[in-house]
Protein backbone atom coordinates (compact mmCIF):
# COMPACT_ATOMS: atom_id res chain seq x y z
CA UNK A 1 0.00 0.00 0.00
CA UNK A 2 2.81 2.39 0.85
CA UNK A 3 4.54 1.53 -2.44
CA UNK A 4 1.34 2.34 -4.34
CA UNK A 5 0.93 5.71 -2.58
CA UNK A 6 4.58 6.56 -3.27
CA UNK A 7 4.15 5.75 -6.97
CA UNK A 8 1.03 7.92 -7.19
CA UNK A 9 2.84 10.77 -5.44
CA UNK A 10 5.79 10.57 -7.84
CA UNK A 11 3.42 10.50 -10.81
CA UNK A 12 1.57 13.60 -9.58
CA UNK A 13 4.87 15.41 -9.01
CA UNK A 14 6.01 14.51 -12.53
CA UNK A 15 2.77 15.82 -14.05
CA UNK A 16 3.06 19.01 -12.01
CA UNK A 17 6.66 19.51 -13.19
CA UNK A 18 5.63 19.04 -16.84
CA UNK A 19 2.80 21.56 -16.42
CA UNK A 20 5.17 24.12 -14.88
CA UNK A 21 7.70 23.67 -17.69
CA UNK A 22 5.00 24.06 -20.35
CA UNK A 23 3.71 27.23 -18.71
CA UNK A 24 7.19 28.76 -18.61
CA UNK A 25 8.17 27.89 -22.18
CA UNK A 26 7.31 30.30 -25.06
CA UNK A 27 4.43 29.27 -27.31
CA UNK A 28 5.54 27.54 -30.47
CA UNK A 29 8.97 26.31 -31.43
CA UNK A 30 11.82 28.53 -32.46
CA UNK A 31 10.99 27.96 -36.10
CA UNK A 32 7.44 29.21 -35.55
CA UNK A 33 8.52 32.61 -34.24
CA UNK A 34 7.99 35.45 -36.70
CA UNK A 35 11.24 37.18 -37.68
CA UNK A 36 11.58 40.84 -36.83
CA UNK A 37 10.76 43.10 -39.77
CA UNK A 38 13.60 45.03 -41.35
CA UNK A 39 13.96 48.59 -40.11
CA UNK A 40 12.21 51.17 -42.29
CA UNK A 41 14.49 53.98 -43.53
CA UNK A 42 13.71 57.56 -42.54
CA UNK A 43 12.91 59.84 -45.46
CA UNK A 44 14.95 62.82 -44.30
CA UNK A 45 16.93 63.52 -47.48
CA UNK A 46 17.17 62.66 -51.15
CA UNK A 47 15.59 63.75 -54.42
CA UNK A 48 13.30 61.75 -56.70
CA UNK A 49 11.86 62.12 -60.20
CA UNK A 50 8.29 60.99 -60.93
CA UNK A 51 8.00 58.36 -63.67
CA UNK A 52 4.27 57.57 -63.57
CA UNK A 53 1.21 57.77 -61.32
CA UNK A 54 -2.44 56.79 -61.18
CA UNK A 55 -4.56 53.74 -60.28
CA UNK A 56 -2.46 50.65 -59.54
CA UNK A 57 -1.89 48.78 -62.80
CA UNK A 58 -3.06 51.75 -64.86
CA UNK A 59 -0.36 54.31 -64.07
CA UNK A 60 0.15 57.11 -66.60
CA UNK A 61 3.66 58.25 -67.54
CA UNK A 62 4.62 61.86 -66.93
CA UNK A 63 4.06 64.13 -69.95
CA UNK A 64 7.06 64.59 -72.28
CA UNK A 65 9.16 67.70 -71.67
CA UNK A 66 7.91 68.05 -68.09
CA UNK A 67 9.73 67.10 -64.92
CA UNK A 68 8.01 66.38 -61.60
CA UNK A 69 10.39 66.10 -58.66
CA UNK A 70 10.18 65.38 -54.93
CA UNK A 71 12.89 66.28 -52.41
CA UNK A 72 12.93 65.38 -48.71
CA UNK A 73 14.74 67.86 -46.46
CA UNK A 74 14.50 69.20 -42.90
CA UNK A 75 11.33 67.30 -42.06
CA UNK A 76 9.46 68.52 -45.12
CA UNK A 77 9.22 68.23 -48.88
CA UNK A 78 9.67 70.48 -51.89
CA UNK A 79 10.03 70.08 -55.62
CA UNK A 80 8.60 70.89 -59.03
CA UNK A 81 5.07 69.78 -59.95
CA UNK A 82 5.89 70.16 -63.65
CA UNK A 83 4.93 73.81 -63.84
CA UNK A 84 4.96 75.32 -60.36
CA UNK A 85 7.19 74.67 -57.38
CA UNK A 86 5.59 73.23 -54.23
CA UNK A 87 6.48 72.65 -50.59
CA UNK A 88 4.92 71.14 -47.47
CA UNK A 89 5.36 69.32 -44.18
CA UNK A 90 5.53 65.56 -43.73
CA UNK A 91 4.90 63.00 -41.01
CA UNK A 92 6.49 59.52 -41.09
CA UNK A 93 5.82 56.62 -38.74
CA UNK A 94 7.56 53.52 -40.05
CA UNK A 95 6.25 52.95 -43.57
CA UNK A 96 3.26 55.22 -42.95
CA UNK A 97 3.67 58.62 -44.56
CA UNK A 98 1.49 61.70 -44.89
CA UNK A 99 1.96 65.30 -45.97
CA UNK A 100 0.54 68.46 -44.44
CA UNK A 101 -0.93 71.39 -46.32
CA UNK A 102 0.97 71.71 -49.59
CA UNK A 103 1.69 75.20 -50.93
CA UNK A 104 2.88 76.13 -54.40
CA UNK A 105 3.77 79.03 -56.64
CA UNK A 106 1.13 80.27 -59.09
CA UNK A 107 2.67 80.25 -62.54
CA UNK A 108 0.33 79.46 -65.47
CA UNK A 109 1.38 76.77 -67.96
CA UNK A 110 -0.27 74.85 -70.79
CA UNK A 111 -3.58 73.12 -70.02
CA UNK A 112 -2.18 69.54 -70.18
CA UNK A 113 0.67 70.49 -67.87
CA UNK A 114 -1.69 72.18 -65.41
CA UNK A 115 -4.04 69.18 -65.40
CA UNK A 116 -1.12 66.86 -64.69
CA UNK A 117 0.14 69.16 -61.93
CA UNK A 118 -3.25 69.36 -60.22
CA UNK A 119 -3.67 65.57 -60.38
CA UNK A 120 -0.17 65.06 -58.96
CA UNK A 121 -0.64 67.46 -56.04
CA UNK A 122 -4.04 65.94 -55.26
CA UNK A 123 -2.52 62.45 -55.22
CA UNK A 124 0.43 63.63 -53.12
CA UNK A 125 -1.92 65.10 -50.51
CA UNK A 126 -3.68 61.71 -50.21
CA UNK A 127 -0.52 59.59 -49.67
CA UNK A 128 -0.66 57.32 -46.61
CA UNK A 129 2.33 54.95 -46.97
CA UNK A 130 5.46 54.25 -49.02
CA UNK A 131 7.93 51.57 -50.07
CA UNK A 132 11.50 51.59 -51.35
CA UNK A 133 12.70 49.14 -53.98
CA UNK A 134 15.09 48.60 -56.86
CA UNK A 135 18.41 46.80 -57.06
CA UNK A 136 19.94 48.86 -54.25
CA UNK A 137 16.69 49.12 -52.22
CA UNK A 138 16.81 52.87 -52.78
CA UNK A 139 16.45 53.24 -56.54
CA UNK A 140 12.65 53.36 -56.59
CA UNK A 141 10.27 55.15 -54.26
CA UNK A 142 6.56 54.32 -54.41
CA UNK A 143 3.99 56.44 -52.59
CA UNK A 144 0.58 54.83 -52.13
CA UNK A 145 -2.75 56.66 -51.90
CA UNK A 146 -6.29 55.18 -51.89
CA UNK A 147 -6.28 52.87 -54.95
CA UNK A 148 -3.35 54.56 -56.70
CA UNK A 149 0.38 55.10 -56.44
CA UNK A 150 3.16 57.49 -57.48
CA UNK A 151 6.31 55.83 -58.81
CA UNK A 152 9.57 57.78 -58.49
CA UNK A 153 13.12 57.01 -59.60
CA UNK A 154 16.14 58.29 -57.69
CA UNK A 155 17.42 61.57 -59.10
CA UNK A 156 20.97 61.29 -60.54
CA UNK A 157 21.85 64.48 -58.70
CA UNK A 158 19.72 66.69 -56.50
CA UNK A 159 21.75 69.68 -57.64
CA UNK A 160 21.49 69.01 -61.37
CA UNK A 161 19.35 71.38 -63.39
CA UNK A 162 16.45 70.06 -65.44
CA UNK A 163 14.70 71.36 -68.52
CA UNK A 164 11.16 72.63 -68.07
CA UNK A 165 8.36 72.93 -70.59
CA UNK A 166 9.49 76.46 -71.48
CA UNK A 167 13.09 75.33 -72.00
CA UNK A 168 14.38 77.24 -68.95
CA UNK A 169 16.46 75.71 -66.18
CA UNK A 170 15.39 75.04 -62.62
CA UNK A 171 17.58 76.81 -60.08
CA UNK A 172 17.68 76.53 -56.31
CA UNK A 173 17.05 79.87 -54.56
CA UNK A 174 16.49 81.15 -51.05
CA UNK A 175 12.85 82.22 -50.68
CA UNK A 176 11.43 84.82 -48.29
CA UNK A 177 8.81 83.72 -45.75
CA UNK A 178 6.02 86.06 -46.92
CA UNK A 179 4.27 87.29 -50.05
CA UNK A 180 4.82 91.01 -50.74
CA UNK A 181 3.05 93.57 -52.91
CA UNK A 182 4.60 94.02 -56.34
CA UNK A 183 3.66 95.41 -59.76
CA UNK A 184 4.24 93.51 -62.98
CA UNK A 185 1.69 93.72 -65.75
CA UNK A 186 -0.72 94.58 -62.92
CA UNK A 187 -0.56 94.87 -59.11
CA UNK A 188 -0.04 91.42 -57.57
CA UNK A 189 1.60 89.43 -54.78
CA UNK A 190 5.17 88.20 -55.27
CA UNK A 191 7.74 86.16 -53.40
CA UNK A 192 11.19 87.50 -52.59
CA UNK A 193 14.16 85.36 -53.63
CA UNK A 194 17.94 85.51 -53.58
CA UNK A 195 20.76 83.31 -54.85
CA UNK A 196 22.65 83.25 -51.52
CA UNK A 197 22.30 84.38 -47.92
CA UNK A 198 24.55 87.36 -48.63
CA UNK A 199 22.67 88.50 -51.75
CA UNK A 200 19.94 91.15 -51.86
CA UNK A 201 16.30 90.09 -52.04
CA UNK A 202 14.69 90.36 -55.49
CA UNK A 203 11.05 89.99 -56.50
CA UNK A 204 9.87 86.69 -57.94
CA UNK A 205 7.44 87.22 -60.85
CA UNK A 206 6.64 83.62 -61.76
CA UNK A 207 9.73 81.85 -63.11
CA UNK A 208 9.78 78.21 -62.06
CA UNK A 209 12.06 77.61 -59.06
CA UNK A 210 12.95 74.82 -56.64
CA UNK A 211 12.18 75.85 -53.06
CA UNK A 212 14.36 74.71 -50.19
CA UNK A 213 14.14 75.32 -46.45
CA UNK A 214 16.95 76.96 -44.48
| Alpha-beta content class | alpha+beta
User: What does the average pLDDT come to?
Assistant: 75
CATH topology of one domain: Lipocalin
- The CATH architecture of one domain can be given as Beta Barrel
Strand content: 35-45%
Poorly predicted regions: 3-10, 25-37, 158-169
Question: What oligomeric state is this?
Answer: single chain
**Radius of gyration in whole Å, from Cα?**
29 Å
Largest sheet: 10 strands, antiparallel
Q: What is the strand tally?
A: 15
Using the alpha-carbon principal axes, give the shape: globular
Order of helices and strands: HEEEEEEEHEEEEEEEE
Q: Number of helix segments?
A: 2
Q: Give the terminus-to-terminus CA distance.
A: 90 Å
CATH class of one domain: Mainly Beta
- Binned, the helix content reads 10-25%
Task: Tell me about this structure.
- The structure is a single chain.
- By secondary structure, the chain is of the alpha+beta class.
- The protein has a domain of 122 residues: Lipocalin, CATH 2.40.128.
- The chain is 18% helix and 35% strand.
- It contains 2 helices and 15 strands.
- The strands form 2 sheets. Strands 1, 2, 3, 4, 5, 6, 7, 8, 9 and 10 form a 10-stranded antiparallel β-sheet that branches. Strands 11, 12, 13, 14 and 15 form a 5-stranded mixed β-sheet that branches.
- A hairpin with a 4-residue loop joins β1 and β2.
- The longest helix is centred in the first third of the chain and has 23 residues.
- The chain is globular, with a radius of gyration of 29 Å.
Amino acid sequence: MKVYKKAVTLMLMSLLLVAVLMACSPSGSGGDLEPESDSVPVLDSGSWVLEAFGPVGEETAVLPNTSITLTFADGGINGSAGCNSYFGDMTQTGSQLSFGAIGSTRMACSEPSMQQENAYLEALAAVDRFSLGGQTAKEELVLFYADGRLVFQASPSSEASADTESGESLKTLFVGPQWVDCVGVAPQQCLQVRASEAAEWTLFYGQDIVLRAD
